[in-house]
Design a protein that fits this description.
Length: 220
């Protein structure tokens, strides 16, 4: 049995540009002060939960409560919905992503699952805009853990299988690092992210997108 773990932003959905502004606005609305930076490389854990708690600590504030996190998630989703209503072109799939997921569903011995640093509600919202029902897939989100490695572990556990091979598909240097930490094979996607950054993080298998389905399946 093989598990294929998919990040979402920049990996399945081409939503990074639309997402960043919504995240910053939701953060300011939720916590009453601006996000210090949206350069995600500045954070130890590039997950919604990790970023929020790190900012709270670095600015001398108490940790965000789960109620505060829930409020942020709901505001964030509303910002995304408003952005989608005004600019639907900002919420598209990485070319070929949906066809790849459908092909994997038909592949015996393979389970595709979600492993994302985003919150569950917002992650599922983005997937819906590209015609993917994320609720039909096992997975884990920033609601489940602070680190991407722990999120990945939870996603694997929720599949309920004991895999002989795991592939992590992602678009960020943090995804490369997570795969290396857990001893998983890695396939990089550079639709919205720099190929040079993935290469610098030691990614060796990198796709521009999934338009060539045979090439994507071969890489996985």
């Amino acid at each position: 049995m093989r598990i294929i773990l998919f990040d979402i932003d920049g990996t399945l959905t081409a939503t990074t540009n639309a997402d960043n502004g919504c995240y910053e606005t939701a953060f300011a609305r939720s916590f009453g002060f601006p996000l210090p930076t949206s350069d995600w490389h500045c954070y130890q854990h590039v997950t919604d939960m990790g970023i929020i708690q790190e900012v709270m600590k670095n600015t001398g504030r108490p940790p965000a409560t789960m109620d505060a996190i829930d409020r942020f998630e709901r505001i964030y989703e509303s910002e995304l919905a408003e952005s989608f209503a005004q600019h639907p072109a900002g919420f598209i799939e990485v070319p070929g992503a949906r066809r790849l997921l459908e092909a994997l569903k038909r592949t015996e011995g393979v389970v595709a699952a979600l492993s994302t640093g985003g919150m569950r509600r917002t992650a599922l919202f983005k997937l819906r805009q590209i015609g993917v029902d994320g609720t039909a897939m096992q997975g884990a989100f920033a609601n489940d853990a602070i680190s991407r490695a722990d999120i990945a572990r939870m996603a694997i556990q929720r599949t309920g299988i004991a895999p002989t091979d795991i592939v992590y598909v992602g678009d960020g240097a943090w995804d490369v690092q997570t795969a290396a930490e857990l001893g998983m094979r890695f396939v990089g996607v550079c639709r919205e992210y720099s190929r040079d950054r993935l290469t610098a993080a030691d990614a060796t298998t990198i796709l521009d997108n999934y338009e060539n389905l045979d090439a994507a399946l071969a890489a996985i």
